[in-house]
Amino acid sequence: MIIRFLSFGKDSLADTFYSIGLVMRLCQSLSALELLHILVGIEENHFFPRFLQIMERIVILFVVITSQEEVQGKYIVCALFFLWTILDVVRYTYSMLSITGIYYPPLTWLNYTLWIPLYPLSIMAKAFAICVSLPYFESFGTYSTKLPFPFTFSIYFPYVLKMYLVMLFIGTYFIIKYLYSERKANLRESSIKKKRS
């Protein structure tokens, strides 16, 4: 994305999804394997916070962005992809090295600190993407449906997205609380390791 921006300038922002959307969908789909790693014990994390983080991204990417072609050309898609990529590169590098037993203090600090500015920005970008997509879901009726006779009610998808938006902010509180406690514990542990060395 950076190379495309340096090569094509502002024009590259609008077609980010068209150029790397497939790769991003593949990577975000594969990130669900993280949940399996936690369940099997390869990675030592709490399941529920990581599940929330992965599901947030999958819902935004596959339901909000991929399903609405008009949203795919918005600048917010580029911002989301950039934020996700920065967070993931640091997190996966740290996880890979820690699983192999390699300890690098600056990377540990970066892994447990970078989320402080970037995770809230990512949540705001997700909320903005939902708000940008609402008029398209309303006008096209995507995912809105009327159920047959025995139920006789309809599901208006923009209302579902608005409820999801509220749940996104509630879930953010729990994830930030978890990330902060994880940061506090791991940075304390890394300072103890540093003193022993």
UniProtKB/TrEMBL annotation:
Coiled coil: none annotated. GO terms for molecular function: very-long-chain (3R)-3-hydroxyacyl-CoA dehydratase activity. It comes from the Eukaryota. The keyword Lyase applies. Keywords: Endoplasmic reticulum, Fatty acid biosynthesis, Fatty acid metabolism, Lipid biosynthesis, Lipid metabolism, Lyase, Membrane, Transmembrane, Transmembrane helix. Its EC number is 4.2.1.134. GO terms for cellular component: endoplasmic reticulum membrane. Pathway: Lipid metabolism; fatty acid biosynthesis. It catalyses: a very-long-chain (3R)-3-hydroxyacyl-CoA = a very-long-chain (2E)-enoyl-CoA + H2O; (3R)-hydroxyhexadecanoyl-CoA = (2E)-hexadecenoyl-CoA + H2O. This is Very-long-chain (3R)-3-hydroxyacyl-CoA dehydratase. It comes from Alligator sinensis (Chinese alligator).
